[in-house]
Amino acid sequence: MVRTLWRAACFWVLLVLLGSCVGIQRDPLRGIDRSQPLPVWARYCPYVEIGDSELRPVPYYMGWTEDRMQRDLASMAKARVSAVLVELSPSAIMREEIRSRLWHFGELASKSQVRVALLLVPDAPGELKMRRANVLRFLETQKFGALPGALRQSDRVVVVLSERIVLDSWQSPSPESLYLRHLGHDLPRCPTGPKSYGVDEHGVMWVRAGERGGSKSASPKAQRLEWPLARDGGATLRDQLLLARRQKAKLVLLNSWNDYSDGSAAENNSIEGSVLLNILLRR
């Protein structure tokens, strides 16, 4: 009996030592209830500024082509992203070529599980003051109530306004075809810097893969020394999703799917490969 207990103890000690040698880690999501779905809306840049950086998409792309649309939608569906917020400015929307590209993207999305919503942003850096009535009139003129593959709430097409768009009023009624959401009002403002805001009073939380803060380099050394929020091989995104689960979030906003200028891209890339996509899948 004593000899049997001694052998069992030695066996467990050996397992611990072997685990530390080969880097076996405890599942950080172990013990967290993942039985309920955690919807993710991902900010998406149709026209990406990649620049000369270590961090870039794989495979590399230029423009918002048919092949890229199909590949992006397939990757988002695989990562269980429920909606994509396509970031466009008013002047971009007024260009027939870009508007037709957005409609085609919506048509492709309608054949998948991913829904599409416009994320309206200013044309230039800084805030843009607008009358709410003019925003709604503009969206109706551009026929966004008929956007194919659209994200819908209360049976209306969702349009999200950037926090940099300042409206004169928030309380006036919306048209029957549109459901206006506004970052910084009924949706939280995206955080900056090293800390997360956590889940807000509506159960919504932003998660970020990283924030480069103007650093020209995306090397691991530069991330540690220069970035406000290092990507840390995907650990940053993993920890924020873990916090969202612990705080029982109802909706996660991902900043972003493919913004390389701010270092928050989560798609398959040259530094982490598909690690972040797998993290999203396992959330």
Number of strands: 10
Structural class: alpha/beta
**Which percent range describes the beta-strand content?**
15-25%
Biggest β-sheet description: 8 strands, mixed
Quote the distance from N terminus to C terminus.
44 Å
The poorly predicted ranges are 12-26
- Sketch the topology as an H/E string, one letter per element: HEHEHHEEHEEEEEHHEH
DSSP helical segment count: 8
Principal-axes geometry comes out as globular
Rg is: 22 Å
Main attributes of the structure:
2 domains, 8 helices, single chain, two-stranded parallel ribbon, 31% helix, 283 residues, 8-stranded mixed β-sheet, 16% strand, alpha/beta
Chain-wise SSE layout:
Layout (H helix, E strand, L loop, with lengths): L1 H21 L17 E5 L21 H13 L4 E6 L1 H4 L2 H14 L5 E6 L7 E3 L1 H10 L10 E2 L2 E6 L3 E3 L10 E5 L21 E5 L11 H7 L8 H12 L4 E5 L19 H7 L2
Parallel strand pairs: 1-2, 1-10, 2-3, 3-6, 4-7, 6-8, 9-10
Antiparallel strand pairs: 5-6
What does this structure look like?
It is globular, with a radius of gyration of 22 Å. The protein is built from eight helices and ten strands. It is an alpha/beta fold. The strands form two sheets. Strands 1, 2, 3, 5, 6, 8, 9 and 10 form an eight-stranded mixed beta sheet that branches. The protein has a two-stranded parallel sheet with strand order 4-7. It folds into two domains: 103 residues, no CATH class; 104 residues. It starts with a helix and ends with a helix.
